[in-house]
Amino acid sequence: MSVLILGGHGMLGHSIDFGLKPTRQELDIFDYDLLHRFISENNVTEIVHCAGAVGGVKANNDYVYDYFMDNIRMNINVLRACKEHDIKKATFFLSTCIFPEHASLPLREKTIHDGEPHPTNFGYAYAKRMLEVGSRCLLKQHGIKTCCIIPCNMYGENDDYHLENGHVIPSLIHRCYLAKKNGTDFIVWGSGKAEREFLFADDMASIVKKIHLDDMTDVPLTMNVSPGCVHTIAEVVELIVKHIGFSGKIVFDSSKPEGIMRKNADISVFREKFFDFKFTDLDSGLAKAIEYFLKNYSSVRK
User: Where are the alpha helices (DSSP H) in 183-227?
Assistant: First the structure.
């Protein structure tokens, strides 16, 4: 068995401690011929697809066309590779932003296509939705089963800490760090009242490992993954401030976008298969993520 990790040097890929993890220079997923050759030469039998063009609420809105096209191109190549190489097991990563803007809560896997996604990220969301559609088509026509995982907001080591285009936690960590360093206010986008679920990347990597290395069978075609705990952005800010040691003023800027106010997920499908899995609590996970950020500040993506 040889497992190919696509996106193996991103945040989640960094936490996955097995498989082949070629760099972008070694394997350009946009080039199908290169992907085909790499799979053939390395006898790849399983794929974990966690590569993607992705960002926070501002980036998703500003680069809506780019994110749609880049993710569609990657996903089509991966689906084609699964078919042409008869891949035995594949895990694909989606995002909770694929759910309809007005979906009922908690978010359930069967409601993915029940309406338009939020207008701030519809390009990215539709590209990810099509990966789920392609996954079902692959099974129906060619009998190749894949698993589409829909994680809640992931965070962890080796994240992208861009101040404007990063996801909420890494962007907040970076802003808080700079506010402490420069003696300025800590500016937080939005009211702080938006609620999210957060998943430590190491936990997601452990689940991927169980699926692929423990030879797990009957993995659901699509499943939400989340610890099942909801936190306001203000609560996240409080924990970040504690771990960075910031003692200045926190300013919530309600003129900035904050996306959907709440999108907690139903995890009953996940718990049927992973009934005893224990997640890292947010306080502990943030402590590890911030320690990594501070130790590697000069080299992290930002």
Answer: 201-213
C-beta atoms surrounding 157 within 10 Å: 20
Cis amide bond preceding 170, omega within 30? no
- Six-digit token pair at 183? 């003696």
Give the contacts of 276 (CB within 8 A, at least 6 positions apart).
Answer: none
Residue 66, pLDDT score: 92
Instruction: Count CA atoms closer than 13 A to 227's CA, side-chain side.
Output: 21
pLDDT digits (tens, 9 = 90+) for 79-106: 999 999 999 999 999 999 899 999 999 9
Domain ranges of the chain: 3-295
Choosing among 3.60.110.10, 3.40.50.720, 3.40.50.150, 3.90.76.10, the CATH entry for 3-295 is: 3.40.50.720
CB atoms within 10 A of CB 208: 26
The DSSP H or E segment spanning 238 is helix 233-244
Pick out the chain residues at pLDDT < 50: none
**What is the length of the chain?**
302
Q: Which of 124, 155, 161, 177 is catalytic?
A: 124
d(CA 178, CA 170): 12
Task: Using alpha carbons, select from 201, 219, 197, 202 the residue that is nearest to residue 152.
Answer: 197
Q: For this structure, is 155 an active site residue? A: no
Q: Mind listing the pLDDT tens digit for each residue in 187-225?
A: 998 899 999 999 999 999 999 999 999 877 789 999 999
Backbone φ, ψ for residue 86 (5° rounding): 50, 50
> Exposed, middle or buried: residue 221 (CB in 10 Å: 0-12, 13-18, 19+)?
middle
